[in-house]
Amino acid sequence: MMPKITRKLPAKSVVKSLAAKPAPAKKPKKLKPWTAAEVHEAFARFHKVNPEPKGELEHVNPFTLLVAVVLSAQATDAGVNKATRALFAIADTPRKMIDLGEEEVRNYIKTIGLFRTKAKNVIALSEKLIAEFGGAVPRSREALESLPGVGRKTANVVLNMAFGEHTMAVDTHVFRVGNRTNMAPGKNVLDVELELVRVIPGEFMMHAHHWLILHGRYTCLARKPRCEVCLINDLCRWPEKTVA
C-alpha cells in the first residue's frame, strides 16, 4: 500500500496577504501647463480688481519693514502689527532699536512666536546695519541675506516693497497657489519662485507677489478653497476644484 501523499497548504496569513495585495497605484495625471496668454489673463484680472495691492505688514520706512518681515516668520501679519505699532513709535531706526535694548524689544514683541530669538536678531541686524551699511538697509539680496534672521524670502519682500525691485517672495500662500493651480509647480519654494519669475509678464511683476499672497490668504485657502469666488477658477488646473 502506497503512503498517502498530503499537500501542505500555505498558511492562512500568507493566503490572506496575497489576496489583499493592492493593485499598482495609478500614476497621477500630468496637468497641462499654463500658456503665456493664460498667465497674462490671470494677472490682468488681479490688476483690474486690485490695481495697487499693498502688503499687510505695517511699517514707516525700509528699516521697520525689514524688522516687521523678520518678525513675521511663523506669525500672522495681524499679530506682528499689534506688537510693532508701539515698538516702531519709539524705535524706527537701527540706532534707536539698539538704544532700546534686547530686553525691551522682547517686551514689545512677546506676543509673537519665537520672540526671544527674534529680539536677539533685531538687535544684531541693527548693529550690523550701522557697522557695515551706514545705518541704511542695503539694496542687494546678498547684503540683506547677510543680516541675522534674514533669508531669501525676507530679502525679496524688502527689495520689492522698499526698493521697487521685481522680486518674488514665496511664502506658504504663494507656494500653495503656484502648485495647486499648476501655474508654477515646484518641490520647494525656490523652484516656485524661479518659475513664477519666468512665467509672469514683466508688466505685472511689481505687484505679483502681493496678488498671489492675497489670493492664497483669502480665496485659495489651504483646507477649503473658495473656488466659487475665485477670479481664475476657469484657468486653474486643480483637479479637485469645485467650479468647472
Q: Return residue spans where pLDDT drops below 50 for at least 5 consecutive residues.
A: none
CA-atom Rg in angstroms: 26 Å
* Largest β sheet strand count, sense and barrel closure: none
Helix content: 40-55%
How many structural domains? 2
What's the shape?
Answer: elongated
CATH superfamily of the largest domain, called what? Answer: Hypothetical protein, domain 2
**How many alpha or pi helices?**
12
Instruction: Tell me the span between the first and last alpha carbons.
Output: 77 Å
CATH level-two architecture of the largest domain: Orthogonal Bundle
In what range is the share of β-strand residues?
A: under 5%
Number of strands: 0
Provide a short characterization of the protein structure.
With 244 residues, this protein is an all-alpha fold. The chain has helices spanning 12-19, 36-49, 62-71, 77-90, 94-100, 102-109, 115-133, 141-145, 152-163, 172-181, 189-199, 205-218. The protein is built from twelve helices and no strands.
Written description of the protein model:
This protein has 244 residues and is mainly α. It folds into 2 domains: 36-54 and 167-229, Orthogonal Bundle (Endonuclease Iii, domain 2), CATH 1.10.1670; 62-163, Endonuclease III, domain 1 (Orthogonal Bundle). The protein contains 12 helices and no strands.
Features:
mainly alpha; elongated; 0% strand; Endonuclease Iii, domain 2; 2 domains; Endonuclease III, domain 1; single chain; 244 residues
Summarize the SSE layout with pairings.
Layout: H1 12-19, H2 36-49, H3 62-71, H4 77-90, H5 94-100, H6 102-109, H7 115-133, H8 141-145, H9 152-163, H10 172-181, H11 189-199, H12 205-218
Helix pairs in contact: 3-9, 5-7, 6-7, 10-11, 10-12
